[in-house]
Design a protein that fits this description.
509 residues; alpha/beta; TIM Barrel; eight-stranded parallel barrel; two-stranded antiparallel ribbon; 20 helices
């Protein structure tokens, strides 16, 4: 132990740890087979986002960038771990880390930062770059291959070494050589452990500096998602719903489900879900008013062009029926609609004028104005009053599933009302109370219709629910989706529209 140089040992451990991080990053991406940084670069933010977007936009350029990225990570990692070309590896590592840093600079928030904590200016990429700068500037590089005579032609003679590094004899020189070679078996042991874990659990393609969002699923897309128009906006026929993101769940009597939604859909997961949705061709989302700030943060940080439809309500005592409309306009929402449950309540209470005034207020800002409803009576009665929105958003699903209560026990406006313990009455289990009347209304109106709750909050399969809604007149469907459902739902929408039979209503929008 007396011959062990603790300073060199600490520097070696410091260097090897960083080297292993680089090496594992590179090997995990190489072993993934289909890894690409395209998604990561295409959503870059910050002052240099144009540079990253330019790289991502060129397939031929990405065919060069991806292998260079992987090779750079592997070579830098090997150099640092084994102790070979340490200065070159350190500088190269700093450059690569700063490229990662400025792709998503933590200047007030980081799209992928929530997993690490709340970041501002300093994140792990910057810290690791500074650590490499220390290694580069230090004269002492620790133990490594570089110190062996074969690699170090300027190795010092015994007379040139300081007293604390003088070998006592030939045996001591051999021990010094073994110390410089010790990183090789260490690499073998760590590599074997990583290989075993990868064989058992799969390759970690979400490791660290270059995150891949949804890439394993996107390759399974069947084609382009068809689009239509709401006002001046061209939007995908499949629109993302906001309930799952906002933590609202129509979960019957499963009381834990809303909390489960909120626990799963962290801000990071919401952003990843939106990014994946856009990559899959979904270019619009319909959200509840409280989610507006989250979506705006996502758009600001990613440069997203996602079309946002927001649902608004008057204040509870109806003293300021425009308060949320004004906030939505100020927030730059693309399309604004009167919230479905509020439409039901206002019609139930014969306050048609409030609905009419809210729609006209939205239109006064030259914004497309929609009207939502759960109960078909709401839309029938507002139409009879001469109130016609730019589009309707109506719950559209059949009632051929187990938890639907009997038709003879259904009453208008009960969707947002009392939840009964009687299994033959409403208990958050049915959202299109009268499917036949809904289909009749939809098929005679002359404005676009967006169907929502088309899966009856999880009681109907997408293949069945999507087909029923489009077949019976919906021009768009709004569906709440978790990230792992998006590609399948897009493919089901494409297949449904390609094979659709029995639709008699012309397409609006």
């Amino acid at each position: 132990m007396k011959n062990l140089n603790w300073k060199k040992l600490v520097i070696t451990l410091f260097r090897v740890a960083i080297g292993w991080h680089f090496l594992y990053e590179g090997l995990s991406k190489l072993m993934a087979g289909n890894w690409s940084a395209t998604g990561y670069l295409s959503k870059a933010t910050g002052p240099f986002d144009g540079f990253y977007h330019w790289m991502a936009s060129s397939e031929s350029l990405m065919n060069v960038i991806d292998p260079l990225n992987m090779a750079g990570l592997i070579l830098i990692g090997l150099g640092l771990f084994l102790g070979l070309f340490i200065s070159l590896s350190s500088i190269s590592g700093i450059i690569l880390l700063m490229l990662y840093y400025f792709a998503y600079p933590p200047f007030g928030g980081d799209i992928f930062g929530s997993a690490e904590g709340n970041l501002f200016i300093v994140n792990k990429n910057l810290i690791e770059a500074l650590a490499l700068l220390v290694i580069f500037l230090l004269k002492e590089k620790g133990y490594g291959i570089y110190a062996l005579p074969f690699f170090n032609r300027q190795a010092k003679t015994k007379e040139e070494l300081p007293n604390d590094e003088q070998p006592a004899d030939i045996g001591s020189s051999r021990r010094e050589a073994l110390k410089n070679l010790a990183t090789i078996p260490a690499l073998g042991i760590m590599g074997w452990g990583a290989f075993r874990e990868a064989s058992q659990f799969g390759v970690d393609t979400l490791s660290g500096a270059t995150i891949q969002v949804g890439g394993a699923d996107i390759k399974d897309l069947k084609g382009m998602l068809p689009k239509g128009k709401l006002g001046e906006h061209e939007i995908s026929r499949l629109v993302m719903g906001g309930n799952l993101i906002g933590g609202w769940a129509h979960s019957r009597d499963l009381m834990y489900v809303p909390a489960l939604f909120r626990a799963y859909n962290t801000e990071k997961k919401i952003f990843e879900t939106l990014m994946l949705g856009e990559k899959a061709g979904i270019n619009a989302i319909n959200i509840g008013f409280p989610t507006m700030d989250t979506i705006n943060k996502y758009k600001k940080m990613t440069g997203s062009q996602l079309k946002v439809i927001v649902q608004v309500a008057p204040d509870n005592d109806l003293k300021d029926i425009y308060v949320n409309i004004n906030k939505a306009v100020d927030a730059g929402m693309d399309i604004i609609q009167v919230q479905g449950n509020w439409c039901d309540w206002l019609v139930r209470d014969k306050k048609y004028d409030v609905i009419d005034k809210m729609l006209e207020k939205i239109r006064s800002h030259k914004i497309t104005a929609g009207l939502g409803a759960h109960t078909i009576d709401s839309l029938i009665e507002t139409e009879a009053q001469g109130i016609i929105p730019d589009y309707y958003m109506k719950t559209m699903h059949h009632d051929q599933y187990w938890s639907a209560h009997p038709r003879e026990n259904r009453f208008p406006f009960e969707v947002d009302g009392k939840k009964y313990l009687d299994h033959n009455r409403f208990h958050d289990n049915l959202f299109c109370l009268f499917p036949d009347r809904t289909v009749e209304f939809v098929n005679r109106v002359k404005v676009p219709v967006m169907g929502f709750k088309v899966l009856a909050a999880g009681a109907i399969t997408p293949e069945d629910g999507f087909n029923w809604a489009f077949q019976n007149g919906a021009d768009f469907i709004c569906v709440g989706m978790f990230d792992f459902q998006i590609v399948n739902d897009v493919n089901i929408t494409i297949d449904t529209l390609n094979k659709l039979k029995g639709r008699t209503r012309e397409w609006y929008g």
